[in-house]
Amino acid sequence: MTEYLAMGGYAAFIWPTYAVAAVLLTGLLVLSLRTMRQRESLVDSLRRDRGQRRAASTQILEAET
Amino acid sequence: MMHRFANPTRFMRVANAVLPWCAAVTAVLLLAGLYLALLRSPADYQQGETVRIMYVHVPAAWMSMFVYANMAVASAVGLIWKHPLADMIARASAPIGACFTFITLVSGSLWGQPMWGTWWVWDARLTSVLILFFLYLGYIALVNAFDDPARGAKPAAILALVGAVNLPIIKFSVDWWNTLHQPASVVRMEGPAIHPSMLWPLLLMAVAFTLFYVVVGIVRLRSEIAAARIRNLQLGMTHG
Description:
heterodimer, A: mainly alpha, 2 helices
C-alpha cells in the first residue's frame, strides 16, 4: 500500500494532479448546482408574488365596480 | 429539426430528461476510468509512474479545446440567427472550459517537472494553451461586465470567434515549432501510437469528461434561463 502510494517516487506529482482535477471539477459542479437552485426558486417566488398581486388588484377592481 | 430544439422550453424538456442519465453514466465511466488509470494500467517504460498524469492531462486538454470550439460555434449561431439560447450555451460553457484549461496547465506543469526538469517553458504549445486560458477569462469578464447579458452577447460572441484562431495553433503547434511537448499520439493519421492498456483508461476518462461537460452545461444553462426569467419578472414588477 505504502509502495503503491509512493508511485515509484513520483507521488508528489501524480496525486496533486488528481487532487486538483477532483477539487476543481467537484467545486464547479457544486457551485453550478447551487446557483441553479437559488435562481429557479427565485423565479418561483417572483411568479407567486405576481400571481398574488394580480389576484389582489382584481379584488380591488371588483370592489370598486 | 434545428427549430424544434431552438425553443428554450422544448430544449430544456429534452435536456432535463437526459440529465440524470448523463450524470449516472458520467459517474460510472469516471470510476471505471480511474480504476484502470490508477490501478490496472502499467507504468511507462520511459516515464515510469508519471504516465498516470496523462489520464487527467490529455482528456482535460482535449476538453479545453472542444469546449472552446463549442463556444465559438454557439457564438456564431447567436450572432447570425440572434438566437438567445445559442448565446446562453456559449456563456454556460465558458467557466467549464476555463476549469479544464486550468487543469491542463497545472497537470502539465506537474508532469513537466519530473520529465523535462522544468515546471514551465515558453514554447508554442504551452504558451498557446495559456492564451486559451486567458481567452476564457477575458470572455467571462466581458460577459459579466454587462448588467443585461443579452446586451453583452454580441461583443462576447465576437471575442469567442476571434479567439477560435488559437485552436488550430494549439493543435498544430507541436508540428510547426520545436517544442519539448511530444506530438500527437492518439489522434493521428497512422492510428493511435499507444498500447490498449493505456488507451482504454485514456478514452474512458475522455468520454467521462465530455459527459461531465454535458451535465454541468445543462445545469448552467438552466441557471442562464432562470436569470433571464428573473430579469423579465422584475421588469414586469417595476413597470406593471
